[in-house]
Amino acid sequence: MQQDQEVAVEARDLVKEFGPKRAVDGVSLSVPAGSIFGLLGPNGAGKTTTLRMLLGIIDPDSGSRSLLGCDQPLKVACDVGYLPEERGLYPAMNAREAIAFMGALRGLPLAEGRRRAVAMLAERGLADWEQKPIRSLSKGQAQTVQLLGTLVHRPRLIVLDEPFSGLDAINQEKLEALIRAEAAAGATIIFSTHVIAHAERLCERIAIIAAGKVAFSGAVDEARDQLRPVVRLQTRAAEGAWRAALPPGARQVGREWRFELPPGGPEPLLKSLIEGGAGIDTLSIERPGLHDAFVAIAGAGTADAMGREVPQ
Ligand SMILES: Nc1ncnc2c1ncn2[C@@H]1O[C@H](COP(=O)(O)OP(=O)(O)OP(=O)(O)O)[C@@H](O)[C@H]1O
Q: Where would one find coiled-coil regions in this protein (predicted)?
């Protein structure tokens, strides 16, 4: 396997300042080829600036990056598809031309771009958009056209800046499916988001960025494993010897006890509860979600600044 097939994107200690503001403060990350990688962080964390440096749109003040095995990102621009955070297409162009034009900017001959645009729209049941000027489409529809234009030249690396924002729930689901399909076909996908749930559903690996720094970079499972599983317990007995089995941090929410699974695991816990006469009504042991892991890694303040999964 060639080196560029193993690691699609690598950043080492990227730093970028805008006047007195250090927007990106030593970001390092590594994105395996063929993976879906999420860049998570609240507004202003430095995600867009990091993506722009990776793509070669702006240069870092210090640090280095490598894209598809090349340390000059613009040299591989024809293998890259980029959906910027600021969306925009020529309003007078029709959807077919807009898609073909975006492909042409990445080296795809216009005639081939038009042929592919027609096929891409038809595949999605959107053939009637072909001749429609962009100005007559809704914001979400125009965003779909721009996304198709991002993919028309079949890039090996797809970089999407906040691709879910501005889409309703159905189109968010369609976009998730499309991202999965592109990865299954061998592309590498990096997307930024301030909605943890999208990253949790899609990504194998993530980087959490807060205030320009990487708070965590690695597998989603690794992030979740930083927290112990949570036990939820309802008992028939209110008091009794079983209460000694609850760890010090246990808290009661209504009838339910919630606490971290003690290091001994479920068996000693169950034994103590049963022998202590708890009378177990319900008991579940849940693996923490990425949201809880995010809170533990980046702090509750940063987590609160992240968006909820509400379609905009
Ligand atoms: N060209 C610029 N000039 C001055 N400041 C900038 C510039 N670009 C970004 N910044 C500042 O750098 C910080 C990081 O911005 P960036 O856009 O990278 O964050 P982000 O995580 O993508 O957030 P958002 O989703 O809100 O765009 C912010 O404080 C922003 O105001």
A: none
